[in-house]
Specification:
The protein has 16 helices and 16 strands. By secondary structure, it is an alpha/beta fold. The radius of gyration is 22 Å and the shape is globular. The structure holds adenosine-5'-diphosphate-glucose.
């Protein structure tokens, strides 16, 4: 069988002190590579003074890790700059936070060229290359320039914005031209795919041939929606075991007979953490019977800490959490518990199972795996309620969730109040619809559907 070559910005290599299970992308990619065998190529996570000369290559079972360090300049311009200060905010509809300059763009192109240059010698004739996410859009174009003839697919983990928003990016044409060098471009949802198709047709004069095929630049690009997912049954078993762990027991004992509302997110402005705490504050204010009766646990490990917008949101959150707690806390009850650190997947599933409500309210999110993990972790005989933003890709699939508009603080508080009072029959009915869906639309299906479509491209 031909090897799968996965390229992503960050590689979670065990030798580099990472567990390999932290992010959504990391676990999805690892699962794919364990099944298919192949290479995982990308940044080691280390920043060095000078550009590296060769990748660090080592094997773990059927899987080869090939990682490169980044120079300080590349890290600043490619990663902190173009990827996280230009594309990320823009693609999450935060034009107010996006910063564009040619130095960032040059750094982005330079690192993509470097990656392509270092990957080429590792490729075999019948390999399939699967590039992930917004950091590496120009990879296929660069690989083709080096003579790469293998199939190259791309999957975008974040939303593809509406054309009017994308047009604010000075290099929008360069970026879209680059993405058209792939054989297959995968999106999280059909609406992302439609946004992309609309841009290519309206702005570049491409032709939508139907069936996801778009004709542009004298070739046909195949596009499709492949909603990423989780190992639902595996996580359900994990949650059942985790419920008896010492940590889960301690959490339950500390909450006692109160209702636990849980939020788990990377600390990122796209996740709607400020509006979420305002919602919780409103729940206490407008429905005073909740005082002393509910606990909100927000787990949010810092990410991209050297990008100024992330420092800012962290400070802002600390101040709001402090204000709400000092306004409402009693000598025997603290309304908000805010934890600024990561937990193992196992521990998280136990925490999800202990929570009456999973509160997932991003302002914009490609998919949001936490929503799916919360559902998979529930106890079938007494499941909690998922309260989910309509702006997460997951909202298109999780039809048993209480769907909310995260900008509507009072509306979400009202939805929370309803969710807290929801009868067991309705909770079971909503939960089983979602869990049945997740069992068949799991991570294995995501990988198979994508790789089958890639194999079928001409
Ligand atoms: P993220 O923005 O990181 O991913 P998400 O899909 O929720 O968002 O994935 C986060 C993952 O990290 C989940 O598996 C979650 O359990 C884990 N995680 C979060 N906080 C944690 C903590 N404190 N400790 C341990 N683990 C934690 C991007 C896109 C999403 C898309 C994914 C996958 O932004 O829209 O769903 O990629 O494609």
């Amino acid at each position: 069988m031909s090897r799968l070559i996965v390229v992503s910005n960050r590689v979670s290599a065990p030798r580099q002190g990472r567990s390999g299970g932290e992010g959504g992308l990391a676990s999805a990619v690892l699962d794919a590579l364990r099944q298919e065998g192949g290479i995982w190529f990308g940044w080691s996570g280390k920043v060095t003074e000078h550009e590296p000369s060769a990748p660090d290559i080592f094997d773990v079972g059927r899987l080869t890790y090939a990682t490169l360090d980044l120079s300080e300049r590349d890290h600043e311009e490619y990663y902190n700059g173009f990827a996280n200060r230009s594309i990320w905010p823009l693609f999450h509809y935060r034009l107010d936070l996006a910063e564009f300059n040619r130095r960032y763009l040059a750094g982005y192109q330079r690192v993509n060229a470097l990656f392509a240059n270092k990957l080429m010698p590792l490729l075999r004739d019948d390999d399939r290359v699967w590039v992930h996410d917004y950091h590496l859009i120009p990879m296929a174009e660069q690989l083709r320039q080096h003579g790469c003839h293998q199939k190259i697919g791309f999957f975008l983990h974040i939303p593809w914005p509406a054309t009017e928003v994308l047009l604010a990016l000075p290099s929008h044409r360069t970026l879209v031209r680059a993405i058209c060098a792939y054989d297959l471009v995968g999106f999280q949802t059909e609406s992302d795919r439609e946004n992309f198709a609309e841009y290519v047709v309206k702005e570049l004069g491409g032709t939508d041939l139907g069936g996801g095929r778009i004709e542009i630049f004298g070739k046909t690009v195949k596009t499709g929606a492949y909603p990423i997912s989780i190992d639902a049954e595996g996580l359900a078993r994990m949650a059942e075991e985790a419920a008896t762990s010492r940590q889960s027991q301690r959490l339950r004992e500390s909450v006692r007979d109160r209702d636990l509302i849980i939020g788990v997110d990377r600390l990122d402005y796209s996740k709607g953490l400020v509006a979420r705490v305002e919602t919780f504050e409103h729940l206490l204010k407008a429905y005073p019977s909740n005082r002393g009766r509910v606990v909100f646990l927000q787990i949010a490990p810092p990410s991209r800490s050297d990008v100024p917008e992330y420092m800012q949101i962290r400070r802002e959150l600390e101040s709001i959490y402090g204000r709400v707690n000092s306004t409402y806390a009693e000598f025997d009850w603290t309304p908000i518990r805010y934890l600024n650190k990561g937990f193992s997947r196992r521990m998280l599933t136990g925490f999800f199972r202990a929570a009456s409500i999973g509160l997932v309210t991003p302002l914009r999110d490609g998919m949001n795996l936490v929503a799916k993990e919360y559902v998979a972790s529930q106890e079938p005989e007494n499941p909690g309620v998922l309260v989910l933003s309509r702006f997460a890709g997951a909202a298109l699939e999780m039809d048993g969730a209480v769907i909310v508009n995260p900008y509507d603080v009072e509306g979400v508080a009202e939805a929370l109040q309803e969710a807290l009072a929801m009868p067991l029959d309705e909770r079971k009915d909503r939960w089983s619809r979602m869990f049945e869906h997740l069992k068949t639309h799991d991570i294995t299906r995501w990988r198979r559907d994508y790789l089958t479509a890639l194999a079928e491209t001409e």
